[in-house]
User: Fold Polysaccharide deacetylase from Clostridium sulfidigenes.
Amino acid sequence: MYFTTLMAIIIIIFLIHSIIPTLYNKYINSNIIKLTNKDNEIMLTFDDGPDERYTNNLLDVLKENQIKATFFVVAENAKNNPEIIYRMHKEGHTIALHSLAHKNALFYSYKYTKKDFKNSIEIMKNFNYQINYYRPPWGHSNIFTNFFVKKYSLKMILWDVMAEDWSKYATVDSISSKLILRTDRNSIICLHDAGENSGGAFNAPLKTIEALSTVLPKLKLVGYKFITPERLGH
Assistant:
């Protein structure tokens, strides 16, 4: 009886702390950006980097296709790769926040959530760059997330298209076909420019980059225009 009661209490706490805030932000909270607001304007976003093994090659592909993207960077990765951050900024991409060290907010305490935002913002300020947008790892929130998003005047951006490019089972063809089939007229696409250091497969971004080399021209050809969050009017 004691064990059953204890488990029930733990489940209720977890629901209140993590599950309900995550579901609320994904499906109910109108302050969360989940789609663009003009037909055929789509947003291309990347999580988990920067990573010196992949991000520069990705930037080359974007430059070749004259596309500006949004990079949700892990602050500690940004700190370790300042030259990539400066390149992103120089080439007109939007730099946004994807946490301090890519830990899962489902298990954050108040103390760690506070540290996560505070330290991340401080790291990015060292680049003389104002962070305005945030995406939580895995799209997970906790009961404290929205408080700190508001405190630091951030807008949370989620997504509606993912190609499972982080998976060890992903192939260039599977990523390409999912992007073509799933992208719609108001889509926000979520891809990744880091691999195993953020829970993805080793060398996974190499497949993403190769897929984008063929997919981006196709999406442009059918009339999609790539925008960054500043164009959304939020």
